[in-house]
Design brief:
This protein is of the alpha/beta class and 141 residues long. Helix 2 (58-68) crosses helix 4 (88-109). The protein contains four helices and five strands. 35% of the residues lie in helices and 13% in strands. The longest helix has 22 residues, at 88-109.
Length: 141
């Protein structure tokens, strides 16, 4: 059985894309997300496990790790875009405390690798042509 990977924010744009790539590589990702919408994972729903939870809440995150035994975490869970200005306290909790909680979970569980990439916030709003299923490259300018 291939190594399990926990994908926080797995229902977001980048997290869903990574989940598909993990499935395509023969893995069964564990999608961990506060949301419940299955729209971004409907094409791989039977090939991944879904856990609803908040990355800033350590006990449920640890429970998911104990249950599924991932060997790495890909951390995409965050609030972005207009939500950040509309809800600064919630965004701070999700983005800062959530990230700290993911790293603490990994430390406590002995998970040696946490990948924490940047995403679309580097480029600002992303148009439909750059999203699933088209994935037209975003120009660097």
């Amino acid at each position: 059985m291939p190594a399990r990977i926990l994908v926080t924010g797995g229902l977001g744009m980048v997290g869903a894309f990574v989940g598909r790539a993990l499935v395509a590589s023969g893995r069964r990702p564990v999608v961990y997300d506060l949301g419940t919408s299955s729209a971004r994972r409907k094409d791989i729903a039977g090939q991944c496990d879904f856990v609803q939870g908040n990355v800033a809440d350590l006990p449920p995150l640890m429970g998911a790790v104990r249950e599924h035994g991932p060997t790495a975490i890909l951390h995409f869970g965050a609030q972005v875009g207009p939500e950040v200005e509309a809800n600064p306290w919630g965004s701070l909790n999700a983005n800062l405390m959530g990230t700290a909680t993911v790293f603490e979970c990994a430390r406590l569980a002995g998970i040696p690798r946490v990948i924490f990439p940047s995403s679309k916030m580097t480029y600002g709003p992303i148009g439909e042509r750059h999203r699933h299923p088209h994935y037209e490259p975003v120009p660097e300018k």
